[in-house]
Design goal:
globular, seven-stranded mixed beta sheet, about 25% strand, three-stranded antiparallel beta sheet, Rossmann fold, single chain, alpha/beta
Length: about 210
Amino acid sequence: MKQPRDSKRRTARVADRTGCRPWPVARPMLEHLCTDVIPDLASDLGRPPRVLELGSGVGLLGVGLAMATDCDVTLTDPDVETNFSDGTKMSTLAWLQRNVDLNVASKRARAKRLVWGNGDDVKALLREGRFDLVVGSDLLYDTGNYGPLVDSIIALAPTRGAIFGYVTRHGAETDFADLATARGFAAEAAPLVGEGLSKPATVTRLTRH
């Protein structure tokens, strides 16, 4: 797989190229969702869940869900133009859609634009219907993104809420749950274990009061 070359400094903290490589929590989160979350949700709904992934990056979590379950999955990315090491120019959203196309044979997954906190992007996503669950992995590395991230969760998350997995990098990750709680969510955290994790990891579920 081609590797992106990020030669330009970021101009917006909510739209960068950090998702152009796999991050360690995606695989444990995939196992957690497939084993402990999706079967119960599908049983309650009586149909395959509609899942929205925030900050999909290369798509490991969202593509994995579409391959391993019957979920209808929408993967999202801020759509940043990127120069790859072989000279190819491609947006991060086009790169994500390519990964979806290469791995998911059905039409149960697609890539859509979402810059966290962008109201127009949220409206475009909701035109296709409401989601049953919002998920994400390794999204809490930059505390400057917490506000826009929570804004998007408020706009997009259904009553059943959102589930996020993350490793502890700087110790301020709990600020995200505190911010979500202050804005009307209940937060429940538990340890997340799995292959490839070299630091303590947590899975947090947000549900509306």
